[in-house]
Design goal:
Layout: E1 9-15, H1 19-31, E2 37-41, H2 81-102, E3 113-115, E4 118-123, H3 125-138, E5 148-150, H4 153-159, H5 161-164, E6 173-178, E7 182-184, H6 186-199, E8 203-206, E9 208-216, E10 219-226, E11 232-242, H7 248-255, E12 264-275, H8 278-282, E13 287-289, E14 303-309, E15 312-322, H9 335-338, H10 345-354, H11 356-366, H12 370-378, E16 389-393, E17 397-404, E18 408-412, E19 415-419, E20 425-430, H13 438-449, H14 451-464, H15 476-489
Parallel strand pairs: 1-2, 1-11, 2-8, 4-13, 11-20
Antiparallel strand pairs: 3-7, 4-6, 5-6, 9-10, 10-11, 12-15, 12-16, 12-17, 13-14, 14-15, 17-18, 19-20
Helix pairs in contact: 1-6, 1-13, 2-13, 2-15
Organism: Zhihengliuella flava
Cofactor: FAD
Pathway: Carbohydrate metabolism; tricarboxylic acid cycle; oxaloacetate from (S)-malate (quinone route): step 1/1
């Protein structure tokens, strides 16, 4: 199939073929259908890096079971604010999915989203006491009103039999569960969104690597290389979005905007165990999240996960963290050293000193034998059979390092939007909760980058996101209305 000719003068250039670029492009096509838009992706298909389901992409992260969003304070209390905020954002994504399905712009919801209980499971007195405190903090929040909690092993057995069977009954355990969770295959969703973009006139250039960005007055020059032919071309755009995952830092640095100064990245790789027994897979129907090890990054929280990938049910456990200096799974080992600049070396060194526990943790993870990996699995699945599990390599995550006025530099776990002062370029750094909050993050990009147009877009955005501008957790009636509508559209109703 011949390559699509590259349009030289664009309104919008999207760099990266993941869920972020696909979501932003889709929103723009609803808001400004006449704008010329092109998407450039280094790989030969959309959604193959962080959006891919085997690459540890967010699979419906909504803070229902992820304990790192509700850490215990020094006095033992739990603040629900961050969990509520992330869940609010995921509800926006759900409404976006629902709109796309209702309009017939993407396929059956079963191809990318499925209902799945979310469960937190902990072991020992201290962790059990924490989980009860978390439950008490969340149960009064409308978004978490259906949360259940137990320390009864037989109840846990009914919720997730693999977790309970064969467990020492004298061991104190606790679990919280919300049955209204979901699993999202963001690889499938991304491919469907990019197919829609193509049908709406967006040029998709796969196998095209953006090598640099440079300002040209009020516009941006984008230097692109065709990987198949080696041919280089230059494209001009009024607005550029850099949704290139781990590749975003280097491109934003090449753009030379002041807002990227002081930012660095710390890559963390990972592995998963994937089950090969259909009988075992069929006996687990939940996302079960535990407590992270001391020094572990949030993305390394252990979880025994049911996932639906390309329509097929699967079971995974992990992740096991590792270290590689490449910023993308398909990247170069030079990515980390080449990202160092005079303006970010100080924050990077300071963050390194302050996170020696993370370094120690990563070294211990890299040195783990397969037997030790199986031992970690059996903390969550006591009767796991090693021969049923294959070790697979997950994707790369680049944690944000940024300047801090008091510490000099901090390692930040989260998603960071970088926008130039004039709003002509924006990019995304960071990891979790990532893909799950793509819709609200991209709406924030629109708000920052197109302030003079944004008020004129609000009526259309309200059609797409019925709760636009309002907090569902503060309006139970609206929450019930939106939940019922999205459950029906996405076929999530029981």
């Amino acid at each position: 199939m011949p390559a699509t000719p590259v349009t030289q003068n664009l309104d919008v250039a999207l760099i990266g073929g993941g869920v972020m670029s696909a979501t932003l492009g889709t929103l723009l096509k609803q808001l400004e259908p006449q704008w010329t838009i092109s998407l450039f992706e280094n790989l030969d298909e959309a959604g193959l890096e962080s959006s891919g389901p085997w690459n540890n992409a967010g699979t419906g992260h909504s803070a229902l079971c992820e304990l790192n969003y509700t850490p215990a304070a020094a006095d033992g209390s739990v603040d629900p604010a961050k969990a509520v905020g992330i869940n609010e954002q995921f509800q926006v994504s759900r409404q976006f999915f629902s709109y796309m399905v209702d309009q017939g712009l993407i396929g059956s919801p079963k191809t990318f989203i499925n209902p799945l209980p979310h469960m937190s499971f902990v072991i020992g007195d201290e962790h059990s006491a924490y989980l009860k405190t978390r439950y008490e903090a969340l149960r009064s929040q409308p978004l978490f009103a259906d949360i259940e909690h137990t320390e009864d092993l037989s109840t846990i057995d009914a919720w997730a039999p693999l977790v309970a069977e064969g467990r020492d009954e004298s061991q104190r355990v606790a679990a919280s569960r919300i049955t209204s969770g979901t699993d999202v295959d963001f690889g499938s969703l991304t491919r469907q969104l990019t197919q829609y973009l193509a049908s709406a006139g967006v040029e998709l250039h796969f196998g095209h690597k953006v090598v640099s960005l440079s300002r040209d007055g009020a516009r941006w020059n984008i230097d692109v290389k065709n990987n198949a032919t080696g041919e280089k071309s230059r494209v001009s755009a009024k607005f550029v979005f850099v949704g290139a995952g781990g590749g975003a830092l280097a491109l934003l640095q090449s753009a030379g905007i002041n807002e990227i100064k002081g930012f660095g990245g710390f890559p963390v790789s990972g592995q998963f165990l994937r089950n090969t027994s259909e009988d075992t897979i069929a006996r687990h129907h939940a996302k079960v999240y535990g407590q992270a090890s001391v020094g572990a990054p949030p993305m390394s929280v252990p979880h025994l996960d049911t996932r639906f990938v390309d329509g097929k049910r699967s079971l995974m456990f992990g992740p096991y963290a590792g270290f590689s200096t490449n910023f993308l799974k398909s990247g170069s080992y030079l990515d980390l050293p080449l990202s160092i600049r005079p303006h970010n070396i100080g924050p990077m060194l300071r963050a390194g000193v302050d996170n020696l526990g993370l370094t120690k943790y990563l070294i211990s993870e890299v040195l783990k034998s397969r037997g030790q990996k199986d031992e970690a699995l059996r903390q969550y699945f006591p009767q796991a059979v090693s021969d049923e599990w294959e070790l697979i390599t997950a994707g790369q995550r680049v944690q944000v390092i940024k300047k801090d006025p008091t510490k000099g530099g901090i390692l930040q776990f989260g998603t960071e939007v970088i926008t130039s002062a004039d709003g002509t370029i924006s990019g995304l750094l960071g990891a979790s909760p990532g893909a799950s909050i793509a819709a609200p993050v991209m709406i924030e990009v629109l708000r920052r980058c197109f302030p003079s147009r944004f008020s004129g877009w609000e009526s259309t955005l309200t059609e797409i996101i019925p709760s636009f501008g309002r907090k569902l957790n503060e309006d139970p009636a609206l929450l019930a209305e939106v939940t019922a509508a999205t459950n029906t559209s996405l076929q999530l109703s029981s």
